Amino acid sequence: MQSKFRTTASLCPGPVSRRSFLEAGSLGLGMLGLSDLLRIRAAAAEGQPPRSSSDTSIIFIWLPGGPPHMEMYDMKPEAPAEYRGVFRPVPTNVRGLDVCELLPMHTQCADRYNIIRSIAHEFADHGGGHKRFLTGRMPATPTGFVNDAPAVGSIVAKCRHSVAADLPNYVSGTEPGRAAVDVYSFGAAYLGPSYTPFNIPGDPGEPGFSVKNLSVDQNFSERLDDRVALLKGFDRMRRSIDESGLMSAMDQFNYQAVSMLTSDRAREAFDLSREPDELRQRYGRHCWGQRALLARRLVEAGCSFVTMVMENPYQSGVEWLKAGTYNWDSHAVNCHLFEDARVRFPIYDQAVTALVEDLYQRGLDKKVMLVVTGEFGRTPRINSQTGTQTGVAQPGRDHWPQAMSMLVAGGGMRTGQVIGSTNSKGEEPRERPLTPNDLWATVYRHLGIDWTESFPDHSGRPMPILPFGEPIAELLPVA
Predict the structure, then answer these.
(1) Residue 40 within any structural domain of the chain
(2) For 62-75, what is the mean pLDDT?
(3) Is the residue at 198 inside a domain?
């Protein structure tokens, strides 16, 4: 079957930043960035739809580039050789739920997650795919990563802006050079920059890792009490001369900034050294595993939406593979699909299954919903091209939004399910066709957010949170 959507035959660089992200100011500038962010956020919260006060949250693991569904969760061993690939499916502890042989840890905990095989959309470019998937809207342009509608995490941040007031409520974890919101279409569009994620660049498992804008050096920490006392003194003076109340309001947000910086809750949430070494080993001493563990700590501390990017496996001591590629964009010109998978899949397997098991073992399986996905799947038919790095012919797959697979868990849902199916060659949904909007309607329902509510766009027009979509019945909480 030939795709009706454009695929890329030449080198595809994958998600790339299209504009710089305006980050919060540094501590050395007196916390202006953080306090300004809090002021903007409070002003922007006026007129928002009612938020839920329920203790729920989302961990969203983002696999940019497009994971190969027919190598992971939707294998077709009976398909022709040019479709099925070289790996074999293996059974899990749930009858009828098979996964790739390179995901052995998945086989032991399949009763605690679900696989969705029938979500599809129509945007085959990375930019269009990111925007379509992450916003729940048809993007104005099929390419480019700058959102014209808010990403789901930004909607959640606005609806639940006052949750977890003493630590960031919407957090993302990325590589240091890929922290800008437009690298992955994490932009807030007409909601404004205060609803973009608080980014944590780097490997949280590295020795000496610290979180920018939430870490203080010893000298500054010793001066914080004096700073608060000084602010209180200025506050008394200002209040007597400030008839508008503006300065009092500014003081309030400065106090909040100091509170966030000195909060035990915030400091402890980001401190992985508080976790047992055995658990950190279970997640894997790799950036992906430690990001997954940090995500669990953040939602446990009260964050509403935590996005962790698992993109480049060749770090944390993993040697670069000449036939490998940076992200999940497994065109033949980028990588040898199967050689890259032999490195990438075991790291992914360890990190994701550790997170699934940890959520259930800690009793967070009702509070936290976990979603693991990329922007689309890969072409069912394998092609061969000369690799840019290797200079020899190698197998790969191109972009394919008509079919994709994803893992979901937690949220109080019944687990151990395969939801939907594709046809015999993995080309398109056969049973239970769904869209990204159905997934997001499920997420919003879990968070207690009415996805039919609206926000005004730049022109003042009311824009519904989701233009269409219904919660996926199989993922609703068990009564």
Answers:
(1) yes
(2) 98
(3) yes
